[in-house]
Structure prediction request, 661 residues.
Amino acid sequence: MSFNPEGVTRRSFLGMVGAVAGAAAMYSAMSTMGFASQSNWRGRLNLQGAPDNTNILILGAGLAGMTAAFELRNAGYNVKLLEYRDKAGGRCWTLRGGDSYTELGGFTQHIDFAEGNYLNPGPWRIPSDHFAVLDYCKRFGVKLEPFIQVNYNAYLHDSEAFDGQPQRFKEVATDFRGHVAELLAKVVDQQGLDEAVSVEDAEKLVAALKRYGALNDNLDYVTGSESSTFRGWSHPEGGGVDGKPEPSQVNSLSEILNSTLWRNLTTGDNLHMQSTIFQPVGGMDMIAKGFEEQVGELITYNAKVTRIHHEGDQVTASWISADSGSNEQTETADYCICTIPFSVLSQIDHDFSPRMSKIIDSMPYASAFKAGIEFKRRFWEEDEHIYGGISYTNLPITLISYPPYNMFSDGPGVLLAAYPWGAYAYQFNALSPEERIDKVMEYGSQIHPQYYDEFKTGASVAWHRVPWTLGCYGLWQDREADYQDATAMDGRTLMAGEHISYLPAWMEGAVLSALDAVERLHTTITEI
Amino acid sequence: MKMLFTSMAALFLTIPAIAQETSIDTTTWFDNPSTLTQTDGASIYAGVCAGCHMPNGQGAKGAGEYPALANNPSLMATAYPISLVIHGHKAMPPLGGLLDDEQVASVVNFIRTNFGNNYTDNEARAELVKNMR
Ligand SMILES: Cc1cc2nc3c(=O)[nH]c(=O)nc-3n(C[C@H](O)[C@H](O)[C@H](O)COP(=O)(O)OP(=O)(O)OC[C@H]3O[C@@H](n4cnc5c(N)ncnc54)[C@H](O)[C@@H]3O)c2cc1C
Prediction:
């Protein structure tokens, strides 16, 4: 490292820390995208005493719709759901071998994954503080297993740094921490922070930083056994004649700062990514199936709602079959819970208030893209010793996630081979399914050269082409101004779904919004 | 014999033409995580608008839908497509952050003069786009 403590004044040092901290804070604000509040789940509902013959109509059988149906049915209401698709779950969805999926534009993919393999095109991880979703999983017997967010042996990759070679997370993490600890330890050791840190604290801080940063006795972060204990050895520890390890070469702070690699060091520290987090065994739609077992008999499938109108104290939804082949039918009820995404609802004929209409009309849905590629063998495990976890890259695929299930098995495995947002996602959306896989292969092979030799099959979901959401999740244009009004009863209808929550793009948000709608509806009805 | 030869030649000619239609040149794509880097109208259309309005502007329909831009009389007034692209409306997201003034003008000129539309008057210019932001 080129850092010379004598040459750095306290002011320039603090400025440097500030610059690093500022950039990191900025990035973490970007990467959390405002998804940082904990669930406000207050425990199971136990609604009682629904008046006889009270009919509730629920539009959309995603998690919000099915949560509402389950709770209201249990309370004694007559509940019916109308769902556009031939299955329940909405965005809580899994693609497996034998499935076919036709996106808008008529592009059809026949999924050819091996038995037991799958792609979760939407939700893929459940934080441990998403209490409502976890509780329904427990109640409905949906088996959960750990989802691996952080894997120290996965890669951080920047095509412009380290000659485009992917670096192991443990190396970058240890180097970054070591260099920052060294800088601070040396400043403290020379009483450089005398105003901020008392003499007694300074001693402890130096000891702590030495341990934290894997520094040597001179407080240097350098190539040696201290750093290699964390970042790995160039010749690994072993047994017998050849057992003595050789330290690995540390990277300079400058090299790491000038790459983009530091950006993903703290992703796993985000409130909703902190270990332990979960996924259902066998695919995310096991949650949808758990709900469907409870309320499936209340659902009319293939029913495309085309009109919602209120008359007196009744609300009526008109619908046609999803293939537009049938005549219009109607369903009338005393109240309605509408979970149709606002993107789609904005295109449906309705008589909601001007205020509600304006809010519905001002919510476009975000772009997102996911591709799953199945390879003939789990080369990331066999060749690179990567078991679950996520590699991050500056390439348009953004990340590669390794399956945290069936580890060490022979035969094919499916990687989540791309998951970009923003401009990259828009462009993947604009390609045909075949062209997307070609692009994903081109980028992914820069990280794993085995890609082309081991390719078996691929599948992708471009969220703006999903026929029943027109996007990934609802984007508020002015949440501060509009949110409360969107939660209000409009005629006889309450809105629910992911978009009516401060946990957007999380299943927990969808479920909590439904629980809140159900409670308020029940209160309204029983207090009349 | 001659007949057969010409029909075979026709066959050989049409195959690459079809193949070309399905494989888009993406060399100017994927260059920036937050903005589009394509500059000509056709590439901008193919790189972002086609995701929803479809490669030939034909639109699409499911539970929700994307309107066709092909043969669309709404494109007559230049300001209308400019405004939609910058500010969005309903399920169409505002794309003014992805595209700069020149790019918006290029793509608007492209849709107004392709897919069966022939509005060559009142070309969109970056100036106008800038004023409408
Ligand atoms: C790419 C991606 C990644 C995600 N990652 C995660 C994650 O890791 N963890 C997590 O917890 N959450 C994640 N989410 C968010 C989660 O999927 C959603 O918040 C949740 O599933 C939304 O449920 P919902 O019931 O509000 O809406 P939906 O599931 O969209 O349900 C709405 C239903 O309405 C139906 N419908 C639409 N139009 C009509 C109509 N006209 N007539 C009748 N029915 C209609 C639809 O078919 C659908 O079934 C992710 C989402 C995406 C897209």
Remarks:
- Residues 81 and 101 of chain B are 13 Å apart (CA to CA).
- The beta strands of chain B are 60-61, 65-66.
- Chain B has five helices and two strands.
- Residues 1-21 of chain B have pLDDT under 50 and may be disordered.
